Amino acid sequence: MPGTEPLSSASIVVTGSSGFIGTHLSAALSADEYSSTTIHGIDLREPVAPKRLLHHTADICSRTALENLRPQVGDAATLIHLAAAAEVLIPWPDVGELISTNIDGTYAVLDTLAPGRVVFASSSSVYGDAGVEQTTARAARPDPQCLYAMSKMNGEMLIREWARETGLSALNLRFGNVVGVGCRGLIPYLVAHATRYPRAERPARLRGRGALVRDYVPVGYIARVLTAAARMPLEPSSAVALNVGTGRGTTNREIAEFVCSLLAAEGLRLEVIY
Fold this sequence. Notes:
Helices cover 35% and strands 20% of the residues. It is of the alpha/beta class.
């Protein structure tokens, strides 16, 4: 990422601070270099390890809850907006919650908390079907093909309009498939399956004939990118979109084979069918 500026002593507000990425980010923001910065976290759940975080239990979909928080939070130099319904495959009964959280909730935090800068956790899913070719840091042409991707694209559009109207700046960070301690998805599914069936009594089932491609990104790297984004020089009225990943896709078959080899070293046998 481009060079960073010294972090203001004003506060940072992190929504979704008790989630997977939020927990790792909160730990990163507890480093000594942020000792003069007040870190507020907003989440429905209590944090597992609050560190220096000032936790506030609130639903971002509730404008009343956010308005009540405003005097406690004050004027935030930066809003890092992570809170979201994060399931890519959404059953129809859950679509309302997706729209409420990812679109209405994004509008509510922008309009109610009035931040000085916004860093938004978007998703590489806005590009639709991925390939294994190298990708650049700058944005490509979006082609959202699922409701989750649509909701992230709408969040980006809201933030671009907010930046234009307020004259302030924002970063829309399109994350790859973030992995690490506490993550959900393919890797923990395979490990849990092998733990339950240590002698491969029942095979694990994967979608897409083993050809589904994702860019698997360590959560520690994501946390470093987010802290840098809080200090990245930006032009007024701008909303910059950047891809955050390794730059190369990996198939779910490759991931499964790697996990199988690691589990075998621990005496666990895992069979996978597609």
